[in-house]
């Protein structure tokens, strides 16, 4: 039922974007549009079909296709936290006919855990940020804690009783828990999962106690009472859960912020003029009210902004996670 509901909601969104964008983008890029694109454009999405970043990528592709009068075709390439799709894009010509939606893991975390088959900085031309998605910190209702402070106190008073699930080393659910442990001295046992769906199901069934997971996934369960939300990892509270504080609001946790993000890139070597046109066109899509409202409903935030802003954010994230990974002695599985 949830997937059917999502399809129903996405249909009018796609129509709104496709009809609203052409006049806006066309006015910005009419001279260049005659030369580019002259054939279909491929958008490699390093996320699974049906996920929030995939759904958002499809809205962007639909709107750009209408504006450019050329199809923008999605190619999902999943694996190693986005590394597989990112590597594939790095090998393509920088002519604008292959673009990439890549992950925070592939662009800012992976290099601290493994030898990457590409250079996240040298092999790509940043275009603009696509979206941000925080995690919700949730517990099974059996846990006797209704605030983050109570959870930390309970965990310290009951060593060995708290376990947390995560879908892989270096993912934002994993790093969120490790950052909380580092900042508080809390001890929790990690339970790794190969399937995010199984991870969520086991938390709801009470097989372990604590989970950080994408707000878009956990919101329905929290609203239905299957899990209790104690915090959100973004700097601000979520409009959908105004009574749930940001983790950084808790005593001693100022500055705590973890956000999964997806940026839009091109292979390195693209001409500056084409890169600027692409950034402007995509940024115009991201300003559409229908898209902003849709991703806000998912618990996320739309990106946008300049190439330099994406480059700077990626660099700051890389430094942040490199420090934690070294300090906590985190190793790739």
Structural commentary:
With 333 residues, this protein is of the alpha/beta class. 45% of the residues lie in helices and 19% in strands. It contains eleven helices and ten strands. It has helices spanning 2-33, 52-68, 83-90, 104-109, 148-157, 172-184, 196-204, 215-224, 272-286, 289-297, 307-327, and strands at residues 41-45, 72-76, 98-103, 124-139, 163-166, 189-192, 210-214, 228-232, 259-267, 301-304. Strands 1, 2, 3, 4, 5, 6, 7, 8, 9 and 10 form a ten-stranded mixed β-sheet that branches. Strand 5 (163-166), helix 6 (172-184) and strand 6 (189-192) form a beta-alpha-beta unit. Helix 1 (2-33) runs parallel beside helix 2 (52-68) and helix 1 packs across helix 9 (272-286). The longest helix is centred in the N-terminal third of the chain and has 32 residues, at 2-33.
């Amino acid at each position: 039922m949830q997937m059917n509901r999502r399809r129903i909601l996405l249909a009018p969104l796609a129509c709104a974007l496709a009809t609203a964008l052409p006049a806006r983008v066309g006015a910005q890029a009419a001279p260049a549009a005659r030369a580019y694109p002259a054939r279909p454009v491929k958008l490699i999405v390093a996320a699974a079909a049906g996920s929030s970043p995939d759904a958002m990528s499809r809205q962007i592709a639909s709107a750009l296709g209408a504006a450019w009068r050329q199809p923008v075709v999605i190619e999902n390439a999943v694996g190693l936290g986005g590394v597989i799709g990112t590597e594939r894009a790095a090998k393509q010509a920088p002519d604008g006919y292959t673009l990439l939606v890549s992950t925070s893991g592939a662009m800012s975390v992976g290099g601290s855990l493994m030898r990457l088959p590409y250079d996240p900085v040298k092999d790509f031309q940043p275009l603009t940020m696509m979206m941000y998605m925080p995690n919700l910190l949730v517990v099974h209702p059996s846990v006797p804690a209704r605030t983050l402070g109570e959870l930390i106190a309970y965990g310290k008073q009951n060593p060995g009783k708290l376990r947390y699930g995560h879908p892989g080393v270096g993912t934002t659910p994993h790093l969120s828990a490790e950052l909380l442990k580092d900042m508080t001295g809390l001890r929790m046992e990690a339970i790794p999962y190969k399937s995010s769906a199984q991870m969520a199901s086991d938390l709801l069934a009470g097989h372990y106690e604590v989970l950080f997971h994408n707000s878009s996934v956990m919101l329905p369960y929290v609203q239905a009472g299957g899990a209790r939300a104690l915090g959100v990892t973004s700097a601000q509270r979520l409009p959908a859960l105004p009574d749930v504080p940001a983790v950084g609001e808790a005593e001693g946790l100022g500055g705590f912020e973890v956000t999964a993000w997806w940026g839009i890139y091109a292979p390195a070597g693209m001409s500056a003029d084409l890169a600027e046109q692409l950034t402007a066109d995509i940024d115009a899509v991201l300003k559409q009210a229908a898209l902003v409202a849709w991703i806000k409903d998912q618990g996320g935030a739309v990106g946008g902004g300049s190439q330099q802003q994406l480059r700077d954010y990626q660099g700051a994230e890389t430094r942040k996670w490199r420090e934690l990974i070294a300090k906590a002695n985190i190793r790739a599985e």
